[in-house]
Design a protein that fits this description.
Order of helices and strands: HHEHHEEH
Mean pLDDT: 93
Largest sheet: 3 strands, antiparallel
Structural class: alpha+beta
Shape: globular
Number of domains: 1
Strand content: 5-15%
Distance between the termini: 16 Å
Number of strands: 3
CATH class: Mainly Alpha
CATH topology: Arc Repressor Mutant, subunit A
CATH architecture: Orthogonal Bundle
Length: 81
């Protein structure tokens, strides 16, 4: 988690918050709803945050049906080990 905090601060400093990063570790995947609830931002802002984290390589976007989910790949690797 500390490594991800530093990565978000470095690559996406404008969106960094402790609540945002903690949300990425509550589940191995994340949706906009999770970000909205944790940080109190609107839906569009939550979607923008997730896209920025995806573009920075911190999360990986996968489309499931009509919904985009964002996988915390580093956390998934730890859980699989």
């Amino acid at each position: 988690m500390d490594q991800t905090i530093e990565e978000v601060k470095e690559k996406c400093p404008k969106i960094y918050s402790k609540e945002l990063v903690e949300t990425l570790f509550e589940n191995p995947y994340c949706k906009g709803e999770f970000i909205e609830k944790a940080t109190g931002v609107e839906r569009k802002a939550a979607a923008r945050y997730l896209h920025q984290l995806n573009d920075a390589g911190i999360l990986e976007c996968q489309k499931i049906g009509k919904t985009n989910i964002y996988i915390n790949t580093k956390l998934m690797e730890l859980l699989k080990a």
